[in-house]
TrEMBL record:
Protein keywords: Hydrolase
UniProt name for this protein: HAD-IA family hydrolase
Domain of life: Bacteria
Keyword Hydrolase appears in the UniProt entry: yes
UniProt-listed CDD domains: HAD_BPGM-like (cd07505)
Phylogenetic placement of the source organism: Bacteria, Pseudomonadati, Pseudomonadota, Alphaproteobacteria, Acetobacterales
Any Pfam family: HAD_2
Length: 198
């Protein structure tokens, strides 16, 4: 595909952008919340929260259900369940096609609000572990998306100015983060036809 003139690097979100892990996360979060905290959160409750970091999601859980949960235990159980099901993960074919088209031609990075253990396992599951020059995850920054930190750090690791990066994202939080970093964005959500905005 064509990318904007002057682009020097491509940065990809992981969950929902490179890989369709959101169904896996939904089941994992539901099971972990039930097992650790006795909370029954149906699929409707999770709708619209796909781009949340783990801590943001747990803050929403505590507010919605009026409880305080053992965050470390819920996160650990959720990650464990996601890792166990990654053999079933599907890649987002249109986005993976772009990755393969530009690999070796431009530096590529992943910038994800997910944990490093799950992001790296996801990339391995779809055979893309060696394609990206940098992988930035939630553990690497103080502020998650929609703050620009993750994308700014990815640009620094690629040694490319933020304004020369194009970001592929599937969430409102991620798109806000990339725009706040001064990057061009491509929305990869269904029916978006890769809407480009600077």
């Amino acid at each position: 595909m064509d990318i904007p003139a002057g682009t020097e690097a491509l940065i990809f979100d992981c969950d929902g952008t490179l890989v369709d892990t959101l169904p896996l996360y939904l089941k994992a979060w539901q099971a972990a919340l039930q097992e650790v905290a006795g909370i029954d959160a149906d699929a409707d409750w999770f709708r619209g929260r796909g781009g949340y970091s783990e801590q943001m999601l747990l803050s929403a859980v505590e507010k919605s259900f009026g409880v305080t949960v053992d965050r470390k235990a819920v996160i650990a159980e959720t990650r464990r369940r996601v890792r166990e099901t990654l053999t079933d993960v599907r890649c987002n074919v249109p986005v993976i096609t772009i990755v393969r088209e530009w690999a070796g031609r431009l530096p590529l990075a992943v910038a994800s609000s997910g944990s490093r253990e799950v992001v790296e396992a996801s990339l391995a599951a779809i055979g893309l572990s060696d394609v990206f020059s940098a992988v930035v995850t939630i553990e690497d920054v103080e502020h998650p998306k929609p703050a620009p930190d993750i994308y700014l750090l990815a640009a620094r690791k690629l040694d490319v100015s933020a304004g020369r990066c194009v970001v592929f994202e599937d969430s409102d939080e991620g798109l806000k983060a990339a725009r706040a970093a001064g990057m061009t964005t491509m929305d990869v959500r269904p029916c978006s036809s890769f809407h480009v905005s600077a």
